[in-house]
Design a protein that fits this description.
Layout: H1 6-16, H2 18-27, H3 35-50, E1 65-70, E2 74-79, H4 84-111, H5 113-126, H6 131-137, H7 144-151, H8 162-167, H9 177-183
Antiparallel strand pairs: 1-2
């Protein structure tokens, strides 16, 4: 996927600040553990304003002329094509994106505190959790649309060909993408095995 929406970026920002918010809310103590997340979040917020034109205040403009100079390695230089007043506005917008994302992260942690505790307790027991187990732990908060999509990922037992799948009411669209890619043209469903 090459196109990303503003709402996706805002969700990514909130997610990036989740560790920081958790430390502050749960432990009332900040550590250096979230430093890379803060760097990523700040960089993304700055891109929202200066590269993607997603600032409501500054509007659909880009700021800064970035050029790559390649000799003896790669060096990136940025030519500042805006005033100090605009630079202060950019900083204010970046700060605003970060503050709103932090608020969202804090709200989510408060809302799903019991799930966070459950996951933390399980991690103390086993150190790592695979995706399948994680999804079981948070199954009741996964949106219905995503649950249904997940449920459709595997064909029911006993369906070993596309013809059998089609006969049981499965359409080309709800066959797992990996199988669809392998199968190719749906006219030839009955010739290809399904990977279970």
């Amino acid at each position: 996927k090459n196109l990303h929406s503003k709402s996706e970026f805002l969700a990514d920002l909130a997610m990036s600040l989740g560790g920081y918010a958790t430390e502050k809310l749960i432990f009332n103590e900040l550590t250096t553990g979230a430093s890379n997340d803060l760097k990523v979040a700040t960089g993304l917020a700055r891109k929202l304003v200066t590269v993607y034109g997603m600032s409501e205040t500054l509007g659909p403009m880009t700021f800064g002329d970035t050029q790559e100079m390649v000799f003896l390695g790669r060096e990136i230089s940025e030519h500042k094509n805006y005033s100090e007043k605009v630079a202060a506005q950019i900083d204010g917008e970046v700060s605003g994106f970060i503050e709103r994302a932090y608020t969202t992260a804090t709200e989510m942690i408060k809302k799903y505190h019991s799930h966070l505790k459950l996951i933390a307790e399980r991690l103390i027991e086993v150190e790592t959790i695979e995706r399948a187990e994680f999804e079981v732990l948070v199954a009741d908060i996964i949106p219905k649309a995503k649950r249904q999509k997940k449920e459709n990922m595997d064909l029911p037992q006993g369906l070993s060909t596309m013809a059998a799948a089609q006969a049981n009411g499965l359409t080309f669209k709800n066959i797992p993408k990996g199988c669809r890619d392998h199968i190719g043209n749906k006219r030839h469903w009955d010739q290809w095995p399904v990977f279970k």
